[in-house]
Design a protein that fits this description.
The protein has 18 helices and two strands. The chain is mainly α. The chain has one domain: Hydantoin permease. A two-stranded antiparallel ribbon has the order 1-2. Helix 3 runs antiparallel to helix 12, helix 3 packs across helix 16 and helix 5 packs across helix 7. Bound molecules: 4-fluoro-L-phenylalanine. 4-fluoro-L-phenylalanine binds next to helix 1, helix 2, helix 5, helix 10 and helix 14.
């Protein structure tokens, strides 16, 4: 039997897992969600979800994955209840669907990176709007970019855990942070930027409707890659002395910090040039090119460089996340169907490319591709972020809190007693009661059952 990979060092563990967490969810989804849901008030609820539900949820997935050191389905089945495999299957299905639609947006980022380099994003507001419309409604180009992105991911995943995933994350994560900081400084120095900063930091709870809670919950789980079995799969490559509580806390804080930095990069610039913050998913493809052009009108070369840096940042962030989604299914097909890793990688690449093509067409050339009255792409986003991810985290909490032997949970939590920690009881209380109850309440409320 081939030896299983592990991440090489503590830093590698943090960077690869944070690489999965930090992605388009932080830089594309978080800002437009914040813009649509009232700014700072949304952020407060979001941070509450991360701290109260996210961190315990992450630890639970880590426990399942590290205990069994195998793919998600086997890992869930190995904690004492064979039927728990279905939680693993659910996670694998969720991450495969997410990879399908995520690759569409990642493909748009690649196109915009090349367009920025070629200087094609120079023009007035109408030109930029038309550029996006023409590109996204083309039947071929966005599909090719999306599939191309999945193939780049495929290439890294075939290199294996240490040589591929770990190396890519170690290189891309620091680069990403650096570019982000440069862009935040540039944005906050623009005239009138303070109104954007205020929008992000001063909560106005009168704008909060009940739906905002489920949106914030979905966003927190999506951003932390929680409920997809991704954390469980990555934890299967952790070492036995990895401190799970500390790793979960560090990753959750880093992820939230980067999301807020992304807000600080986008909103001050948007307010500075008088662009509305609530323009939705197209915020970074229509609004921002306008911002780059108007904000740096007197220094076009700075605008040119900033725009390239921004789309490069998005591509890097997306790649470290798509790698993790791909790895979930690859590890499953490799270990469960006993396929060579290379073949397992191909299965996932083909399935996700298929989903990506249909999602891309549904928001472009063929708007009739709908499910439940939504374009297929929006439907995939809705069903994963607002139903499948919370469901995955809910069932994992029930499993760890109520079904698995506490001894096993404690063993993983404190590394067999070698870690001195006072948080075990708080953690158990949280996974037993707080996490499942909060998810259930938010769910029932959203669907008008209570
Ligand atoms: N957390 C990623 C982001 O914020 O972009 C998205 C993601 C990655 C979701 C991996 C699910 C997953 F399994």
């Amino acid at each position: 039997m081939e030896k299983r990979g592990t991440f090489g060092s503590k830093l590698a563990i943090i960077l690869t897992t944070a690489g999965s967490a930090v992605g388009l969810g932080n830089i594309w989804r978080f800002p437009f969600m914040t813009g649509q849901n009232g700014g700072a008030a949304f952020i407060v609820i979001y941070l509450g979800c991360v701290l109260i539900l996210g961190i315990p949820g992450m630890i639970s997935e880590f426990i399942v994955g590290r205990h069994s050191q195998s793919n998600a389905a086997r890992a869930y089945g190995n904690v004492g209840f064979r039927k728990a495999r279905y939680i693993g299957y659910l996670g694998i299905l969720t991450s495969t669907i997410i990879l399908g639609f995520y690759a569409v947006v990642a493909g748009w980022c690649l196109q915009y990176l090349f367009a920025s380099i070629a200087g094609q994003l120079n023009g007035d507001t109408n030109y930029i709007l038309e550029y996006f419309k023409t590109f996204s409604s083309d039947p071929i180009r966005p599909c090719l970019w999306a599939v191309g992105f999945i193939f780049i991911t495929h290439f890294v995943v075939t290199q294996g855990v240490e040589k591929g995933i770990e190396r890519a994350s170690k290189l891309l994560m620091p680069l990403l942070l650096l570019i982000l900081v440069v862009l935040v400084i540039a944005s906050c120095l623009l005239p009138g930027a303070s109104r954007g900063i205020e929008f992000l930091l001063k909560p106005d709870f009168s704008k909060v409707s009940s739906g905002v809670f489920l949106e914030a919950l979905g966003q927190a789980f999506f951003s932390l890659s929680l409920g997809t079995a991704c954390l469980c799969t990555y934890a299967s490559y952790f070492k036995k002395d990895t401190n799970l509580l500390k790793s979960a806390t560090q990753i959750a804080l880093l992820d939230s910090f980067i999301a807020i930095l992304a807000g600080l990069m986008i909103f001050p610039a948007a307010f500075s040039v008088g662009v509305q913050p609530d323009s939705g998913p197209s915020l970074i493809f229509i609004t921002l090119p306008n911002v780059f052009r108007q904000a740096f009108e007197s220094m076009p070369i700075v605008g040119f460089v900033i725009s390239i840096l921004f789309y490069a940042l998005l591509v890097f962030a997306a790649l470290t996340s798509t790698i993790s989604m791909h790895e979930i299914g690859t590890a499953f097909f490799h270990e469960e169907l006993r396929l060579p890793r290379n073949k397992a990688t191909w299965i996932l690449t083909l399935v996700c490319s298929f989903i990506a093509i249909f999602c891309s067409l549904s928001v472009g050339a063929n708007p009739n591709l709908q499910l439940f009255g939504m374009p297929l792409m929006d439907f995939c986003d809705f069903i994963t972020a607002q139903i499948m991810l919370p469901a995955g985290a809910f069932f994992t909490s029930i499993l760890i809190g109520w079904m698995v032997e506490q001894q096993l949970v404690k063993q993983e939590f404190d590394n067999g007693g070698t870690l001195k920690t006072n948080f075990f009881h708080a953690y158990m209380f949280s996974v037993k009661y707080i996490v499942p109850l909060c998810i259930l309440l938010i769910f029932l409320h959203q669907f008008h059952i209570i």
